[in-house]
Amino acid sequence: MADALFIVLRKVALSLGEEALQKIGTEVVEVAPIMTDFEHSMKQIEGELLILQAFIGQVSAQRFGDKAFDAWLDQVRDVAHEVEDIIDEYAYLTVQAVDTSSFFKRKFHQIKNFVAWQKFHSQISQVETRIQRLGEMRNRYGLLVGKVDKKNDFQLANQLYMSDSAYLTDNSEIVGHVDEIGQLTEWLLEERQDRNLMAVFGMGGLGKTTITSSVYKNQKIITSFDCHAWITVSQTFQVEELLREIINQLIDERARKASGFLAMRRMRLVEVIQSYLQDKKYFIVLDDVWDKDVWLFLNYAFARNNCGSKVLITTRRKDVSSLAADNYVIELNTLNYAESWELFCKKAFRSSQDNICPENVRSWAHKIVANCQGLPLAIVTIGSILAYRDKEHEWAFFYKQLSWQLANNPELSWISNVLNMSLNDLPCYLRSCFLYCALYPEDYKIKRKLISKLWIAEGLVEDRGDGTTMEEVAECYLTELTQRSLLLVTERNACGKARTFLMHDLVRELTSIVAKNEKFGIAFGDVGISQGCHEARRLCIQRGAQTSNTSAGSRLHSFILFDTEVPSSWIYDSLSRFRLLRVLCLKFANVEEVPGVVTELYILRYLDFSHTKVKNIPTSIKKLVNLQVLDLRFSYVKELPLELTMLTSLRHLHVFMVHDLQERSRDCFSATKILGSICHLKNLQALQIVSANKDLVSQLGNLKSLRSLAIVKVRQCYIAELWNSLTEMPNLSRLVISAFDMDEVLDFRMLKPLPHLRFFRLAGKLDAGELPSIFYNFEKLTWLKIDWSGLKKDPISSFSHMLNLVDLRLHGTYDGEQLTFCAGWFPKLNYLQLASMKNLNWIEIEGGTMMRLIQLELFGLGNLKAVPNGIKYIKTLHQMYLTDMPNQFLESLRGSGSHIVQHIHNIHTFESSDSEVNNFCFAEYLANKFGPGAIKHAPTNCGYSST
Question: Which UniProt keywords apply (predicted)?
């Protein structure tokens, strides 16, 4: 794969474009000749690597499964890694050279590192020699473009037609997907005259070919068409061969020989097919389509003859499925557990009566089926292998060695081949990003914002310019990975944008193996991954940190620690070896201070001390001139040093503590002070949560890249200046403002609107108890929370024009007695919270309002005695959370008002004083923010309180 070259070439281009010599100036004039020679040599190496990358791109598809080519490719990857290490060392010394901590220290480093500068010459010479040998090896072993031996031809053909065996599956063996098969059958028998294009898409191994073939072989369907054909397209299709195969299946042998189609060129072949189909009702399946380009020719070949013809595509890619007509796409999902168990038993116990699982292996069988996560390919293949084993210890051994079996057992190669086809189809820029995802633990919710920042810090995301941020480019990468059925979207935000993603366990297992073999990264502590840390470029320690080998830490680019039980002494000792880190993630780690060695990691881009007991950030933080992300959420940092404002590369700064997960108080978030001027942080996109002061609010206007801001301790005298600064931010979409205290009255009248806001939280009393007019300019808002504003008039009508609102939270907002939700209001709202409004005694809900509401939370409404009758109109409502509600309300819920809520499946009642509600909120908060793994990794005393 050429992705290692892709990464290093980007680094070469960046290192040569930074004009490091000019940056250093006269500080290290003695190494100037060395640096000049370095840049010249790197340009030559860049040229060689570009040619290698182009060569690999041309022949890699032809050489699938060629062991000689794979071995040569490993050598190329090693050379790329050597070049990358040289570039990182160069960047490290360059930044260290301008470390201005003290005159004597600076001179000491210059003398000490002069030898390191001199080593570049010999290192580059060795790389140049290795590149030359790579060319010689390529010629010696015949690894040339267009030259593929017969053995590799056979391997390629074996890959291309793997799906054919799924076509041969007996219908009696199919389990699940009843609705999908029924839907396909209905579409194919549908009476419509125009040619109809349909698609079935989903990840590899879901059974797309199997269920499509069951429909294709249905006699009722066969007799409904004049002719039919099944064409396997595959990744490496040749247009001419594809067209000839269609002719082979459609036209009888005598007519084929007469036409001489074997010698025809592609356009003539298209004409032959079109002519033949012109007056026929045909049904054609295009199985395993990887590229929309195949349709460019087939669209013309398949005549639009108004005879009711049908074309059905199976694909792993959403963009390919989009070729189909509207509403004629089926997205295939994994089997549920009951279906998985039935299918497994059919294969593993086919020799027993009724396919019954023996008691002695039942527990292991259930574990194995659970690991398959509803993937039919894995269930069938593993079940077939275990059909010949009846001893309990054999099943136990197989389960415990499942990762090794997937990587090494030839009987399971079908699974790895099918799943790896999707991985191998990825372009270079996506492949490395996807390998990075596999470093995370099993069932871990991969957060969009987090993974995007990590990719950027690692240099895996290109800077496209034209006003597009790298964060937006990274989101495009994630979208493409989901459209290729490699990542599953598990949660979306209020705007409908994907928030969290999940990798299928088997895809993750196999991708982890690839990442390890290619020395991309190691998930240490993962089942089956226990060796090779010394060769890893990236290390994610999930457990057993103290048994890992980090002796070659200077090669590491990323160090991500999930093991919360490791002592701080081990962390400090390990960090001393991580010289060239770009990513350091110590979330939930047992540390109370920032280790001194951290600020010597000069090329660090990403630093995460969130959920730790760290209290102070050292002034030496100024050395991290490349730092892009500093995450101190849920730490104990209350003040950031003046030196932090010198980090001009900073893009995201998160520092706060949540004191009340239920957000019952106005001061549920802590305030953090920033010393000094922030005017130079012009790359900053996110800043939260900072304490306001007169200088800060005026300086904010310089941060024109800011997209997300949370500012607290705001006084009325700051408002005009603050708002002027906010209007200077053309991309601001998320804003949190909290008043200085409960007595501070904020006046937002006469202020300009912020038309691009999508997320707005305002805490504090509003002047005259009225909503300011700027609220009528928030049409794009999807999330709104108003706290303790002391409104005197029912505010619901003032929000009703916000047609995009998905999440509305009113906490102590209104002092009146009645709220009214009229028909037609809030058409997209799916979450509503009404809390701490002590005078509220009536909620009017008309039919036709909030017709998409899913969750309703009522909190501390002490005067609300009866369940609002209008809830019965909201049929989409399936969750209701009731905290600190009066007894009369709860009695109404169980008695006279029970018919109103009978359609709501989940109703939870709490008292805020109960530990249950606090534990519930704590667990839910962590799970939503950081995935299910965060709960078990969270320390028992992590600074949360319920007060």
Answer: ATP-binding, Coiled coil, Leucine-rich repeat, Nucleotide-binding, Plant defense, Repeat
In contact, 201 and 321? CB cutoff 8 Å: yes
> Which residues, in sequence order, are bridge partners of residue 818?
842
Model confidence over 182-218: pLDDT tens digits?
999 999 999 888 899 999 999 988 889 989 999 999 9
DSSP assignment of 730-761 equals TT--EEEEEESSTT-EE--TTPPP-TT-SEEE
Buried b (16+ CB within 10 A) or exposed e, 859-883: bbbeebebbbebbbbbeebeebbbb
Number of other CB atoms surrounding residue 236 within 10 Å = 12
From CA 503, how far away is CA 305, in angstroms rounded? 43
Which has the closest alpha carbon to 742: 788, 809, 793? 788
What is the helix (H) or strand (E) element at residue 686, kind and residue range?
Answer: strand 686-691
Please give the backbone phi and psi of residue 77, each rounded to the nearest 5 degrees, phi first: -65, -40
- Which pLDDT score, from 0 to 100, does residue 526 have? 58
**Separation between Cα atoms, residue 607 and residue 599, nearest integer Å:** 10
- Three-state secondary structure call for residue 167: helix
Tokens linked to 394? 């054999």
Element housing 858 (H / E): strand 855-859
| Distance (Å, whole) CA 502 – CA 931 | 10
Paired tokens of 499? 């928030």
How far apart CA 603 and CA 583 sit, in angstroms, is 9
Comparing CA positions, the residue from 762, 764, 790, 791 lying closest to residue 778 is: 762
For the residues of 493-551, what is the DSSP string, one character each? -TTS-EEEEE--HHHHHHHHHHHHHTTS-EEETSTT--S-GGG-SEEEE-S-GGGS--T
Q: How confident is the model at residue 598 (pLDDT cuts 50, 70, 90)?
A: very high
pLDDT of residue 352: 79
Q: Smallest Cα–Cα separation from 342: which of 297, 383, 312, 306?
A: 383
Q: How far apart are CA 748 and CA 575, in angstroms?
A: 49
Strands 446-447 and 498-502 turn out to be: antiparallel
DSSP letter assigned to residue 211: H
* pLDDT score of 697: 93
**How many C-beta atoms lie closer than 10 Å to residue 405's C-beta?**
18
CA–CA gap between residue 449 and residue 466 (Å, rounded): 21
Nearest alpha-carbon partner for 264 in 293, 233, 241, 286: 241
Is the pLDDT at 120 greater than 90, yes or no?
Answer: no
**Tokens 């989101």 map to which residue?**
475
Of all residues in the chain, the percent with pLDDT exceeding 70 is: 82
What is the identity of the amino acid at 230?
W
CA distances from 132 to 58, 128, 520 (A): 20, 6, 24
CA proximity to 736, closest of 792, 692, 694, 777 = 692
Residues 6+ apart with CB under 8 A from 571: 561, 586, 589, 590, 591, 595
Which residue would you say has higher pLDDT here, 594 or 297? 594
